[in-house]
Description:
This protein has 397 residues and is an alpha/beta fold. The chain contains nine helices and 21 strands.
Amino acid sequence: MRHRIVIVGGGSAGISVAARLRRAGEEDVALVEPSRHHYYQPLWTLVGGGFARVEQSRRLESSVVPKGVRWIADEVVELDPDARHVTTAGGARIGYDVLVLCPGVELAWDLVPGLAEAMATPFATTNYSPELAPKTAELVRRLRGGRALFTAPGTPVKCPGAPQKAAYLACDHWRRAGRLAEVSVTFATGAGGIFGVPEFAATLSTVVERYGIDARFSTELVEVRPDVREAVFETRGPGKAVRETLGYDLLNATPPQRVPAFVRSSPLAGEGPLGWVPVDRHSLVHRSYPDVYCLGDACDAPTSKTGAAIRRQAPVVVANVLATLAGREPDGRYGGYAACPFTTAKGKMVLAEFDYSLSPRPSIPLIDTTRERYDMWLLKRYGLPAFYWNLMLRGLG
């Protein structure tokens, strides 16, 4: 089969682009996505905090695929950009004029020995899985004292603020329960600081101090020994790396992430084992294939991998895809906008909005979103999910 536009991936990016293409009048659009369910993943932070149910983040994929888009419910196993077709697990070969690649990322459990095995124990969890996010809330409620470890890799992950949010909401729960003094909390991240935008980093640093969190930077989780409840960290400094082993009573770990295997094994993958797809940071066109666009978590655009970034990337990709099909140079420009809503306590949130320059780019006038606010908490819990389901996925926002 052949289609004018083929979209690989039916997550936030794929559905948003498909909806906008249909609204622009494109009639020959195919979407390849094997999943039967579509998730609003930002809600998993609140699921892990005990403020939402995982079922509230899930809908049938069939309910979000735009009318008029051909949904191919199969898994892509091969990308051939030279022959301009993709191949699915079911044996279908789908040709295209333009390919929009937005397959998301996979959780690379195997890159940290013992991490996957730890998740099967009653002492470890993550908010990066709909199966495990509810477990986070359970383990936080159950912990009466001891050591709690929260980790994040230094390599790119979707919603890089999520590991911090998990720590803050857990600490807030223990504080309200009168148990925070009994818990030794460590947040270890491979990143070099708490956040890359100084205006928001200052606020987050006060949150870390308020909860008494031992924040360790340039510190990577390299191994977990679940049978003895130990985590091995490597702190990297100038010319040296120091390893340290910490015991834990609760481990909330963010696994490393990478593009799916069918992308990593294709000519579209970038250099390195994680395979981020190389694109022009403004047009989001592939650097080697002008008929391929990539957006969302899989591309190497140097900004945070968030739904807010996808919201700004989608209209740029649609405009540029239409230009390519019309034989024009793509002139849509993405400026690197992304947003990280940091839930710092029950009823408190900091909305960090920024761009490629790492400068604040607030979208809500007359409100100081660099400080913790209750109205931003309401936005996170109720406003953004409603916006996502009712506007963004329909190509309206």
